[in-house]
Write a structure and sequence with these properties.
Low-confidence stretches: 11-22
Helix content: over 70%
Oligomer: single chain
Number of helices: 23
Distance between the termini: 66 Å
Order of helices and strands: HHEEHHHHHHEEHHHHHHHHHHHHHHH
Length: about 500
């Protein structure tokens, strides 16, 4: 096994530059040249599309949105009627100190949010509006609402089929509920295949969207704000990546509890700072808010100026929503599986809150700032630079704050995704110190690579890797949806019984 792992690790160094081959090129340029063919191939495979009239429709979007709509109707809009239960559970209701698991509901939520609330909400929204206009915002919000139910389903299953080891640590997520859940239904071979396929794609997603995309945008924001491309970091962004990789290694070597201790502080703080900055910009342009909403609504159903018209706008919005909240990808289920609970459905309720926070609130805030300031009319800026320029138009010093926020968001996302990738890695190669250390070193290597890549290449490979995870995951969710429905029915009966008992106690008193 060690020989196999060493062989895999050695292959990763093929993407690093051979300095003698092109001495005139910088390290950054050589990394870009090496990665480009891989990016192009991944995009062609994952984003295969077909024509409906004049429109090119990516199959992957229909796959995710179709699943989200099915689960929403199948569970009778539990994403809306379950909000009160979700809040009660996060506050500690129905929880016991001796419940199995590693972390509290709140810590599991913040750890999962650290993997979703980040540059997908800041840079991703800017990409959606640049390509799809203000109307893309509307479809991002819709994608967030229906994505709540998908999160509910996959995170309930993650707790139900998790493995609790002798040392108290937990292994859970799609690879386990695909394996064990489908096996229980008599589809053992299919379940094993889907679980292994998911694990492979999750490792790729961890290295791409959860790693390279995050550090890439953090590096470019840092360089843009603190001196530009003529500075040392501007010429050698790989050094920025090296620093980030060392810091990440210090945290991830301590396991999930170490990660959760960082994320439950960083995520709420950075969300608060970012939202306060957004509200400040909106208040400064208060009179323009109605026209911004008009542009968003009209653009969602019109889109005359955008290639592909209204459908093109919708596709951009839904694509970014999926990237932002990751509903259907199964990634967050790995974090939620660690929650302390004896009732799997409770973590499903908690997880359903995620798309509300990361897509409906944070993404909408970003979109309104970009639209209301008119920053998206500038074709020369994209990604995080576009969001930064929008904030700077009102708060001149905010790009410095945003730069720090972006780095922290990127850092928290990377350490969460390192855990997702690690659990997938150990599912395939076994849980041993050598196996775990191998992946952690590999992950840190890709932080350096991601910092050096150009934006278009890194976002291409990030989207491809992360969306590939949805193929095996959503298939499993369809098979196992009746299990979730049964768990939900049992929990709602339990809640009604508790409420009646509480009413009797109140009356007797």
């Amino acid at each position: 096994m060690k020989k196999v792992l060493l062989s895999i690790l050695s292959l990763t160094f093929l993407v690093t530059p051979h300095l003698q081959a092109a001495p005139v090129k910088s390290v950054d340029d050589q990394i870009n040249d090496a990665i480009s063919p891989i990016t192009a191939f991944m995009e062609r495979v994952i984003f295969v599309s077909f024509k409906i009239g004049p429109y090119e429709i990516p199959f992957i979007l229909l796959w995710l949105i179709g699943g989200a709509l099915f689960f929403t109707f199948y569970l009778k809009f539990i994403n809306i009627r379950g909000l009160k239960h979700a809040i009660d559970i996060i506050k500690g209701k129905y929880s016991k100190e001796d419940d199995p698991g590693e972390v509290t509901h709140f810590q599991a939520l913040t750890a999962a949010l650290s993997g979703t609330v980040g540059l997908g909400n800041i840079a991703g929204v800017a990409v959606a509006i640049s390509l799809g206009g203000p109307g893309a915002t509307f479809w991002m919000i819709i994608g967030g609402f229906i994505g709540m139910t998908t999160k509910f389903v996959e995170c309930t299953l993650a707790v139900k089929y998790r493995n609790i080891h002798a040392d108290g640590s937990v292994s859970g997520g799609p690879m386990h509920y695909l394996d064990k859940g489908l096996s229980a239904k008599g589809y053992g071979r299919l379940g094993k295949f889907l679980a292994m396929f998911f694990a492979l794609m999750c490792i790729g997603g961890a290295l791409g969207a959860g790693n390279m995309f995050q550090v890439n945008q953090a590096a470019h924001q840092f360089v843009g704000v603190f001196g530009g491309e003529s500075t040392f970091f501007g010429q050698h962004t790989w050094v920025f990546g090296l620093i980030m990789s060392l810091l990440a290694f210090i945290v991830i070597v301590g396991g999930f509890k170490s990660i959760a201790k960082v994320t439950d502080k960083v995520v709420p703080l950075m969300c608060a700072v970012y939202v306060i900055g957004g509200i400040t910009v909106l208040l400064a342009n208060f009179s323009a808010i109605p026209s911004a909403f008009t542009a968003i609504i009209e653009g969602a159903f019109n889109g005359k100026a955008i290639a592909g018209g209204a459908v093109g706008v919708m596709l951009q919005g839904l694509r970014r929503a999926a990237f932002s909240n990751e509903a259907g990808l199964g990634s967050a289920a790995i974090a939620h599986s660690t929650a302390k609970t004896s009732k799997p459905i409770t973590e499903g309720f908690v997880a359903s809150i995620e798309p509300v926070i990361d897509t409906v609130i944070v993404c909408t805030m970003t979109a309104l700032v970009i639209v209301i300031t008119g920053a998206y009319h500038n074709p020369e800026v994209d990604g995080i630079a576009l969001t930064s320029s929008a904030f700077a138009s009102v708060i001149s010093w905010f790009p410095y704050v945003l730069s720090i926020a972006v780095i922290l968001f990127a850092f928290s996302t990377m350490i969460s995704w390192s855990y997702y990738g690690l659990k997938s890695w150990t599912y395939l190669f076994g849980k041993s110190k050598f196996s775990e250390l191998s992946f952690k070193l590999l992950f840190c290597l890709f932080i350096v690579i991601g910092a050096s890549m150009s934006f278009d290449r890194v976002i291409g490979i990030s989207d491809a890797m992360i969306f590939a995870m949805s193929f095996p995951n959503v298939i499993g969710l369809y098979f196992l949806a009746p299990v979730v429905k049964k768990e939900l029915k049992g929990f709602l009966s339990f809640v009604k019984k508790e409420e009646k008992e509480n009413e009797k106690v109140t009356v007797s008193v």
